[in-house]
C-alpha cells in the first residue's frame, strides 16, 4: 500500500514539475523531451529525497537550472580524481544551491579574530587554559594507534542537521563536550544546541561563532540541558534561561583549550588519548561530496577555514591512503551517513589550522 502511494506521489510530482517547467521555460522544450530528460528524472528524485519545496514556478525552474549546472560541476570534479583517490562527488542536499548560498552556511569565525570581538565585553571573556598535551612535547606517531574511530564506541552522539543556521561552531563545541563527558562519566547525552543561539550576546545563525565564544557562554550558563528539554529550531528565539532549572543542566565544563596550527602527530595524539575534538576546515568543496577521501590537491580546496567539524578518528586504507574521519552537521543523508574523510598529511582544506576541546 505504501509503495503504491509513493508511486502515485511520484507521478503527481512529475506532472507538476513538467507543467511548471514548461510554463516558465517558455515551452522551449516539449513535454516529451522534458520527460525523457535524465536531468529531470534526477531532479525529481532529488526533490523527493530531500523534501524540497519551491514557492513559485519561477523558483522551481531556477532551481532545476541550477541543479543541471551543478551536475556539470560534479562531472568536472570527478574527472579530476586520479587513480587511487577514493573521493566521489554527486547529488547532495545542496545540489540546487548556488555557490554563494552554500558558502553563507559556512560562517565559522577564526578564533584569533573572534577574540577581538569577544574582548568588547570584558566581563564575558574567559581565557583558555593549557591543552591536555603540551604543544612543546615531542610526539612519536610510532607509539600511537595505527587507527582509531570513536564512532565505534558509545561516546559520539547521532548526526545532526544545522539546516540554514550558521551554527556549525555551536554544534562542534557541544559535541566535543558530549564525547568528553561520556568518556569521563560513562553516559552519552544529546545536549541542547538552541540555548547557545538564544541566550548569547550575538546571533550565531547570522554572525557565525567560534569555539571560544561557545565554551565561554556555556561556562557562564552553568551547564547544558538535554536537547529534548531545549529543542533546536535553527533560528534565534527568545532566551528561555528562566525556564531551565539547575537540575536540567546535566553536563557542565570547567574550562576549555585551543591550539593553533597543530601538527598531524599532535592531533593524532590528542584524539587517540582524549577522544573527539573540534577542528576548523574550509568546506567549500564539500557541497557535492558523497563518499571517499578528499584530497585538497585534487579539489583545489583552500586553507582559509570557514566551518567547524568534529574529529572522531583517523586511519589508513588498504591502498595506504592516510585519512582523518570527521563528523559533520548536515544530516545523515549527506556524505558517509553524515561523516566525511580528508587525506592526512597535507593540511587538507586547512585542517591543521585550529584544534579545540573542553575540560569537564
Can you walk through the features of this model?
There is one protein chain. With 360 residues, the protein is of the alpha+beta class. The protein has two domains: 2-80, no CATH class; 99-359, Alpha-Beta Complex (Cathepsin B, Chain A). The protein is 37% helix and 13% strand. It has twelve helices and ten strands. The chain has helices spanning 2-25, 31-35, 38-49, 57-80, 99-104, 111-118, 168-185, 194-198, 204-207, 211-221, 264-274, 296-299; strands at residues 88-89, 148-149, 255-260, 277-281, 289-291, 293-294, 307-316, 322-327, 339-343, 354-359. The strands form two sheets. Strands 2, 3, 4, 6, 7, 8, 9 and 10 form an eight-stranded mixed beta sheet that branches. It has a two-stranded antiparallel sheet with strand order 1-5. A hairpin with a 5-residue loop joins strand 7 and strand 8. Helix 1 (2-25) packs across helix 4 (57-80). The longest helix has 24 residues, at 2-25. The protein is globular, with a radius of gyration of 22 Å.
CATH class of the largest domain: Alpha Beta
Proportion of beta-strand residues:
5-15%
Shape: globular
Global mean pLDDT: 87
String of helices and strands: HHHHEHHEHHHHEHEEEHEEEE
Sheet with the most strands?
8 strands, mixed
Tally of DSSP β-strands: 10
What structural class is derived from the secondary structure elements?
alpha+beta
- Assembly form of the protein: single chain
Amino acid at each position: 500500500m505504501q509503495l503504491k502511494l509513493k508511486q502515485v506521489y511520484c507521478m503527481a510530482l512529475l506532472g507538476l514539475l513538467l507543467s511548471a517547467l514548461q510554463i516558465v521555460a517558455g515551452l522551449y522544450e516539449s513535454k516529451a523531451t522534458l520527460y525523457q530528460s535524465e536531468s529531470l528524472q534526477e531532479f525529481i528524485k532529488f526533490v523527493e529525497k530531500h523534501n524540497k519545496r519551491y514557492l513559485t514556478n519561477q523558483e522551481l525552474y531556477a532551481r532545476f537550472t541550477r541543479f543541471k549546472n551543478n551536475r556539470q560541476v560534479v562531472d568536472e570534479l570527478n574527472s579530476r580524481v586520479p587513480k587511487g583517490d577514493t573521493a566521489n562527488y554527486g547529488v547532495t542536499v545542496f545540489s540546487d544551491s548556488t555557490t554563494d548560498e552554500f558558502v553563507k552556511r559556512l560562517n565559522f569565525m577564526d578564533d584569533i579574530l573572534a577574540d577581538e570581538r569577544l574582548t568588547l565585553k570584558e566581563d564575558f571573556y574567559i581565557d583558555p587554559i593549557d591543552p591536555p598535551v603540551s604543544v612543546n612535547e615531542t610526539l612519536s606517531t610510532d607509539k600511537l594507534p595505527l587507527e582509531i574511530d570513536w564512532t565505534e564506541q558509545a561516546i559520539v552522539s547521532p548526526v545532526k542537521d544545522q539546516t540554514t543556521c550558521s551554527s556549525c561552531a555551536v554544534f562542534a563545541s557541544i559535541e566535543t563536550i558530549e564525547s568528553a563527558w561520556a568518556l569521563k562519566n560513562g553516559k552519552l547525552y544529546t545536549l541542547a544546541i538552541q540555548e547557545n543561539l538564544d541566550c548569547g550576546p550575538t546571533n550565531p545563525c547570522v554572525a557565525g561563532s567560534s569555539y571560544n565564544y561557545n565554551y565561554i557562554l556555556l561556562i557562564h550558563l552553568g551547564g547544558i540541558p538535554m536537547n529534548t528539554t531545549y529543542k533546536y529550531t535553527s533560528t534565534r528565539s527568545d532566551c528561555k534561561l528562566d525556564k531551565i532549572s539547575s537540575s536540567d543542566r546535566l553536563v557542565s565544563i570547567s574550562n576549555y583549550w585551543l591550539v593553533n596550527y597543530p601538527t598531524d602527530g599532535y592531533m593524532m595524539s590528542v584524539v587517540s588519548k582524549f577522544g573527539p575534538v573540534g577542528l576548523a576546515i574550509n568546506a567549500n568543496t564539500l557541497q557535492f561530496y558523497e563518499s571517499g577521501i578528499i584530497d585538497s590537491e585534487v579539489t583545489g580546496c583552500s586553507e582559509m577555514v570557514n566551518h567547524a567539524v568534529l574529529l572522531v578518528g583517523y586511519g589508513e586504507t588498504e591502498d595506504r591512503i592516510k585519512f582523518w574521519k570527521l563528523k559533520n552537521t548536515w544530516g545523515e543523508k549527506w556524505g558517509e551517513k553524515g561523516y566525511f574523510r580528508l587525506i592526512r598529511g597535507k593540511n587538507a582544506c586547512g585542517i591543521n589550522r585550529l584544534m579545540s576541546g573542553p575540560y569537564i
